[in-house]
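Batch manifest, entry 17 of 40.
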Amino acid sequence: MRVPPAPKIKQHAEPWRWLLYVALALFGGLLTFVGARAQQKATDDATFRKLTDDYCAAWSSGNLDAPAKFYAQEDGLVFYDLAPFSYHNWKDYRAGVQKEFLDSSEEIKLTAGKDLKVKRRGTIAWTTVPIHLLIKTKDGKATEMDIRYTGIWEKRGPRWTIVHEHLSAPLSH
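Output type: structure tokens
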């Protein structure tokens, strides 16, 4: 009885098959990475939308204890405001806003615009958003303006804290 010869094994098929598996694994890993980044961006956008809206509501309350929780309290940090110019800690910022705005105002209302932009690198994030400001003074005058807001936030423990901000108003046309 004669035994048929063993089939020839294609030696070139195996390396190509292995290369295909590696390529598919890399592609799957890339999809996972892209999906995770997109999910992180969506989470950041929602987190900072809520923080920004809460920030505006806190300032609109007229009680400076409300926005204080958003700010880092140590000296040496710079906060640029509409008036007079800048502050170098929360204590000075609080006193300046009280004098420049709250002492003469009956109502202050900040409303964040829809165009919130968020960029994050680890525990640091920066946000930009247009904000509408309404000030009603105690003598009955009302002033409205659109301002630009940039905030630098640092994640400290479970909370995001403002470590720098810049508010500005465009020059009139």
